[in-house]
Structures are given as C-alpha cells and as structure tokens.
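Review this chain:
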Amino acid sequence: MRKQRDYHINIFWSEEDACYVADIPDLRCSAFGETPLEALAELQIAKELWLETAREHKKRIPPPRCRPASTTSLSRAYVAA
C-alpha cells in the first residue's frame, strides 16, 4: 500500500508579526505561534477546520503538490532558531 502524502508545511519567523508563522501553500492556510511548535500545532487545527469546511460545502480539496527545493526537520530548525 502506498503511503498517503501530506501537505507541505512552511514554518518561519515573521519580523512584521513578531511570531512564528506556519502555512500550507496548497490550502492557502496559515497559523501563528510564539514557537515553531506552537505555530505547527495551531496550523494542524486550522488545517482540520479548513478540510472539514471544504467537505461540508462540497468544495474541491486540492491534492498535496507543493514541494520545496530543500527541507529541514523541525527539530533542527527549532534548535537553530
């Protein structure tokens, strides 16, 4: 059985907002947090609500497709921050 792909997530520091931002480009969904892990946790909630709302309104849910040129694991990114 093939493993289902999940959506690519970006996590970055926003000087303008003075917090971490996590987003899913394929869904145009984002969330904020004081730490990368908090932003990721908030994004997971936002993603589930986004998908639930799309299903309720019978909207098309885009497949995961956005992939970065390079990746860094969250644990390494968090330690480096």
